[in-house]
Amino acid sequence: KHQYNQSLNLQHTPIARCGGEMADEDELKLLSTWASPWASMVKLALHLKGLSYENIEQDLNCKSDLLLAFNPVHKKVPVLIHNGKPICESVVIIEYIDEAYGSTSPSLLPTDPYERAIARFWVDYIDHKLVIPWKVAFTANTEEDKIEAIKQILVGVNVLEGDSQGMLQREALLRW
After folding, report:
1. Are residues 93 and 120 in the same domain?
2. Which of 46, 77, 100 is the last residue of a domain?
3. Structural domain count of the chain
4. Where is the GST N-terminal domain positioned along the sequence (predicted)?
5. CA distances in angstroms from 46 to 19, 93, 114, 133, listed in the order given
6. Within this chain, do residues 168 and 123 fall inside the same structural domain, yes or no?
7. What's residue 160's pLDDT?
8. 17 Cα distance to chain centroid
9. So what's the pLDDT on residue 24?
10. Domain membership flag for residue 64
11. What's the pLDDT at 10?
12. Residue ranges of the chain whose pLDDT lies below 70
């Protein structure tokens, strides 16, 4: 077993393998949960780069010692562990993957600095205007909170589509 598994006594952590075996000198592990859209983005980036990794599913209702040790600040997924070193936060992880595996195609971000900045802007926009409200819509305690989150999502989608006319159609769907 790996050193941190032994020190944290986590030999029985449920593990799902993706891809083939990895060399010890370039080991990738991902602490994630199936329901996290942020973890899904990291998984997509890993798959686009063709990288093998070990997925270690986390129960966020009972956080593992491994998660708490590797993300002591936020105590949440995703966390990419590259050769024993943790990288936290999905956007940071995706940029890290692109930089650490720059010679592995495809590139996840444009090479031009301006185009990279634009891509980062839209990633942040989608995260704050679509993904977070989506999570709220599925976890809200009241119908009003769910409806408000869905409205925020629809406004965000309209901006992406550049469609101010479609807003009225979507408002009608919400009332339906």
Report:
1. no
2. 100
3. 2
4. 26-105
5. 10, 10, 24, 25
6. yes
7. 87
8. 18
9. 47
10. yes
11. 36
12. 1-25, 163-176
Q: What pLDDT does 2 receive?
A: 39
Tokens of 77: 């997924």
pLDDT of residue 36: 94
- Same domain, yes or no: 72 and 129: no
89 plus 123 within the same structural domain: no
Would you state the pLDDT for residue 25?
A: 65
**For residues 34 and 131, what is the distance between their CA atoms, to the nearest angstrom?**
15
Is residue 161 one of the residues assigned to a domain?
yes
Encoded tokens for 140: 């809200």
How high is the pLDDT of residue 87?
98
Q: Residue 161: which domain range?
A: 113-175
Q: Which of 76, 100, 124 is the last residue of a domain?
A: 100
Q: Same domain, yes or no, for 16 and 45?
A: yes
The pLDDT value given to residue 41: 94
